[in-house]
Structure to design on (512 residues):
């Protein structure tokens, strides 16, 4: 710092003899000021950090016993290489995620702006000033009266001169009360919160991708089964039509078969439209106009993973790593630091300024060291009257702090409720899936019985077709149940922030 002030040394010749004397007290004063600043810069007016959240239960109640290892890339648990590749593509191309990352870059540079106030600012300047003024104003008018006597030299009517200068200056505010430090810490916490927001967006995008993937596969399978059901109903309607023409079936049976056939056909355009809309959502996640997906064949291992038990005794401390909870806490912490910065404004501020350089009225002489100049200043500024503006700013900071504290508490409560609800829903859907699996097995056995009766001549063909259609309807219900169960498993992952930790396992919860 001292070197910047005395960058261009002064000479002690002629009218400059006073400068060495000035430097003898300026340097010690400057050094002492910096030492005081270093000693007091650690002060902070921010309130003490308080835990505003009520104690959480030690674990979630709905988790059941299982031997399940935690994993980093949790979607790999479904055992589908195509799904893994799809998620990787979404992470690389998703527009919402790229916007969130760009937002991080913005907040990161806002932090750098706030941090820059902790350091001296230095400026290099070069100027050319030309002035032309009448001589009868200011000091020229007073000197002109002395020259206006008999025998004295003629005083000029105007002053016309040019000045060239080049200087290096600095300014520094000593952060006695922690205002700059509080502002910097608040910006840093906002930066951390924005990073957590990216993890929240990442988790949401991955979850939406996995859910859309299973939805597309389920809709494709449902469409195939519905087309098979239409084929069976068409064959059934044809049999009844032949019987009706021969007088072996009543008009009621004939028209009921026709109505059922047309109703099933009416479902096909709806299913095709829903499938196209779901593929469109996947294309949007990938940042593309269209996704060329003809068929998605999900391996059976994906549904096996969806049926696996969730580890028992999941600790509620997992919520501390959930990105939206982290973001809420970090913004709460930023508000606390802003209170300290607002409080510090009501106390005096101390600043140091200085400049050194060369000055001459002739451009060619500016390189001469004898044309040097320097200045140093120390200022103390204290607020006296501002119509309550400072106190109002402090109250605003406190109000924002209270809002974010309550928002943090609400976020934790909602996160805990999300996990509990996801675990309960997952358990109930597993029970429903078991019942539908049993129903599908019974429908399959019924088809075999009806086929055997038809071949033996003890049953009719219509009964066999009805059993086949009933099997298809049960398979449609089981397909939707598998999708719901996979999405329920996904909801548990999302509510926990992506994954869980089991005792004895190591896991890095940072987003990939």
């Amino acid at each position: 710092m001292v070197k910047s002030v005395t960058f261009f040394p002064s000479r002690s010749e002629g009218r400059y003899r006073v400068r060495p004397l000035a430097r003898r007290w300026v340097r010690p004063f400057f050094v002492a000021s910096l030492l005081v600043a270093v000693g007091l810069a650690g002060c902070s007016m921010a309130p003490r950090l308080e835990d505003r959240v009520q104690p959480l239960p030690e674990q979630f109640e709905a988790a059941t016993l299982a031997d399940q290892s935690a994993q980093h890339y949790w979607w790999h648990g479904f055992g589908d290489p195509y799904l893994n590749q799809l998620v990787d593509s979404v992470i690389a191309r998703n527009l919402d995620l790229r916007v969130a990352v760009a937002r991080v870059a913005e907040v990161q540079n806002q932090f750098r702006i706030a941090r820059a106030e902790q350091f001296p600012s230095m400026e290099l300047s070069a100027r050319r000033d030309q002035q032309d003024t009448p001589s009868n104003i200011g000091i020229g008018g007073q000197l002109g009266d002395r020259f206006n006597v008999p025998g004295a030299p003629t005083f000029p009517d105007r002053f016309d001169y040019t000045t060239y200068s080049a200087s290096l200056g600095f300014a520094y505010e000593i952060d006695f009360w922690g205002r700059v430090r509080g502002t910097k810490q608040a910006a840093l916490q906002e930066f951390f919160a924005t990073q957590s927001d990216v993890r929240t967006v990442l988790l949401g995008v991955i979850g939406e991708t996995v859910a859309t993937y299973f939805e597309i596969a389920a809709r494709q399978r449902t469409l195939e089964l519905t087309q098979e059901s239409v084929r069976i109903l068409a064959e059934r309607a044809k049999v009844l039509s032949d019987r009706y023409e021969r007088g072996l079936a009543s008009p009621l049976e004939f028209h009921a078969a026709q109505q059922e056939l047309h109703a099933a056909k009416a479902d096909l355009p709806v299913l095709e439209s829903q499938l196209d809309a779901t593929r469109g959502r996947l294309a949007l996640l990938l940042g593309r106009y269209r996704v060329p997906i003809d068929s998605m064949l999900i391996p059976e291992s994906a549904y096996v993973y969806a049926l696996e038990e969730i580890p028992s005794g999941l600790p509620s401390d997992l919520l501390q790593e959930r990105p939206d909870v982290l973001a809420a806490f970090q913004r709460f912490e930023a508000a606390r630091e802003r209170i300290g910065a607002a409080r510090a404004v009501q106390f005096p501020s101390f600043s140091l300024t200085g400049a050194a350089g060369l000055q001459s009225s002739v451009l060619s002489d500016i390189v001469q060291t004898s044309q040097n100049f320097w200045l140093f200043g120390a200022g103390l500024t204290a607020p006296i009257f501002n119509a309550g503006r400072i106190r109002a700013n402090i109250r605003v900071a406190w109000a924002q702090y209270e809002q974010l504290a309550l928002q943090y508490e609400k976020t934790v409560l909602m996160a805990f409720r999300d996990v509990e609800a996801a675990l309960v829903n997952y358990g109930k859907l597993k029970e429903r899936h078991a019942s539908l699996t049993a129903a599908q097995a019974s429908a399959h056995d019924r088809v075999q019985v009806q086929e055997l009766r038809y071949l033996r001549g003890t049953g009719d063909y219509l009964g066999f077709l009805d059993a086949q259609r009933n099997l298809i309807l049960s398979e449609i219900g089981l397909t939707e149940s598998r999708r719901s169960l996979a999405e329920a498993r996904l909801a548990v992952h999302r509510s926990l922030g992506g994954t869980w930790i089991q005792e004895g396992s190591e896991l890095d919860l940072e987003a990939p």
